[in-house]
Amino acid sequence: MTAAVDVDVAVVGAGFAGIGLGIRLARRRQESFVLLERAHGVGGTWRDNRYPGVACDVPSHLYSFSFRPKPDWSRVFAPGAEIHEYLRDSARDEGLDPHLRLGTEMQRARWDGARWRIATSSGTYRARVLVVAAGRLSEPRIPEIPGLSGFDGPVFHSARWDGAAALAGKRVGVVGTGASAAQIVPALAGTAEHLVVFQRTPPWVVPRGDRAYTPAERRAFALDPAAERALREELFDEAEGAIGARRRVRPDIDRLRERALAHLAEQVPDEGLRARLRPEYEIGCKRIVISDDLYPALGRDDVTLEPSALHHVEKSTAVAASGAHHPLDALVLATGFWTTRLPFAQRIEGRHGLLADRWADGMTAHASTAVHGFPNMFVLNGPNASLGHNSAVYMIEAQIDHVLGALDHLGAGPGAPLEVTAEAEEAYTREIDAMSADTVWLQGGCRSWYLDETSGRLTLLWPGTARSFRARNGTFDPRPYGQPPLPAAPAGGA
């Protein structure tokens, strides 16, 4: 039997969060660490999502590490392949290759009283600290549709795109109208013989305003890093301004709604289609789609908007909840991910049992990062650590700072592990619930993937500004862990 490999830190996942933490660990050169990645390449969401039209909904210069800027982004909203290349280049150039364990899936992680024992598909690791960076958009959610498994043609999820499926000239169904579908539908419209889009609920859509950066702009950013930083700050401040609408502040939410309705009226002249595309819930309650080409695609003669869900499948016919029958050659499931019931929680065992059981009534974590009963474990991009209005990368960086502060507190010795108290976690959860109570996510008249299915709590998003998240959680405070604060540095320096 092969002996377990001992490391200071084991990081599960090599997407934005895992690579970002890996870079910071590699630069500080204080801890031994591994990045455990089940796939055979880095990139997470941007490795997995290869569907036609895939791109980011956050401006490129904001959707990148502040400590590793990229001055030559090709467009205002980068294509998915370019983001994936950025992450691959970041991992390679920052020296993460020796730390990467690709094709290594975490099968079980168990706290043994002193360290985490992590069983993987490629051996066992013993780590003083476990950081879960598996993300919330990694496990496709496949709906339970009667007859789906017996469909005559190819069926695949948007995050598991089948490049071998020849869709040109075929009758294709797209199930869903969320962010992924809004990019897939325009890309397939005109290529497929006919496209049927199954819409359970219409999304709110606002203009995208994407364009290519000119060669002169890209050269200017490369020659003047301060200009690139200024653009990033401008984009950040603009995004932060959107939180008022999510808090249902007037006139902020009215302006956002009017902008979306004007976009709908301008791009959809057909009154009947426009009525089917107007949401009945408040704007922002579900994820807002950012697109300039979804509405024109849905207005094409070779595209049918089916204003109901896919109910069941009969061989090569998709039957909608409305009773309409649609003969199809292929089905694309743009049906989202398991976001509030994260599958990795079934594989992590703390002092009192599985993380999945600890989260049975919804995900919680102190500082959106640490869970009582799971010593020396930190979760990146987990409970209430996402945003509905700004860049996830900013949030990830704040959590990385929190984890690095915890590592500093642990120090090099064999001291007691860090475990957040139950009282601290409960107090933080009450704080989140109070902040969420009057937001559009809870008061907007919809059920979304931001909310826990059992409790109805907002467990995915931080219900405030990105800046407030960093101020609240970006610095490690040992007191909620039952630890004394670190001594202040001597006045006047060394």
CATH topology of the largest domain: FAD/NAD(P)-binding domain
Report on the biggest sheet.
8 strands, mixed
Q: What is the CATH superfamily of the largest domain?
A: FAD/NAD(P)-binding domain
Strand content: 15-25%
Helix and strand composition category: alpha/beta
**Radius of gyration, Cα only, in angstroms?**
23 Å
Shape field: globular
Which stretches of 5+ consecutive residues score pLDDT under 50?
489-494
Oligomer: single chain
- CATH architecture group name of the largest domain: 3-Layer(bba) Sandwich
Rounded to the nearest angstrom, the distance between the terminal CA atoms is 50 Å
Number of helices: 15
What is the helix fraction of residues, given as a range? 25-40%
- Total beta strands: 18
* The top level CATH class name of the largest domain: Alpha Beta
User: What do the pLDDT scores average to?
Assistant: 94
Tally of individual domains: 2
GO molecular function: oxidoreductase activity
Enzyme class: oxidoreductase
Organism: Actinomycetospora aeridis
EC number: 1.14.13.-
Short précis:
The protein is of the alpha/beta class and 494 residues long. The protein is built from 15 helices and 18 strands. This is NAD(P)/FAD-dependent oxidoreductase.
Question: Could you characterize the architecture of this molecule?
Answer:
By secondary structure, this protein is of the alpha/beta class. The protein folds into two domains: about 230 residues, 3-Layer(bba) Sandwich (FAD/NAD(P)-binding domain); about 180 residues, FAD/NAD(P)-binding domain (3-Layer(bba) Sandwich). Helices cover about 30% and strands about 15% of the residues. The strands form four sheets. Strands 1, 2, 3, 4, 5, 6, 17 and 18 form an eight-stranded mixed beta sheet that branches. Helix 1 crosses helix 12, helix 5 crosses helix 6 and helix 12 runs parallel beside helix 15. The chain is globular, with a radius of gyration of 23 Å. The C terminus is likely disordered. This is NAD(P)/FAD-dependent oxidoreductase.
